[in-house]
Hints:
The protein is mainly alpha-helical. It has 2 helices and no strands. Helix 1 packs antiparallel against helix 2 (53-82).
Amino acid sequence: MERFREGTGTSLVVAIGSAAIFTVLAAVLAVLFWIAFSIYAIVEIVGDGRPSAVAVLMIVVGLVGGLTALSGIGIWFVGRRLAPAKRRPD
């Protein structure tokens, strides 16, 4: 008797989607870092002109954490939509 493998296709789609999202995430982070640091530099020029290491760290932590959380939520929604509906035992 063959083994029943119901979720194999779903798990492959979610794995490929995750790999694609995390690959694109690096390029998106580079662009967002550039934009965020440019805005921060303009604000510091207008302000006191003394950059803060804590502010730069918070920009990095916020961008990486936020984008990772958003991509995780997106992957969860895709996986949930692709999962087959549970059936009642008859």
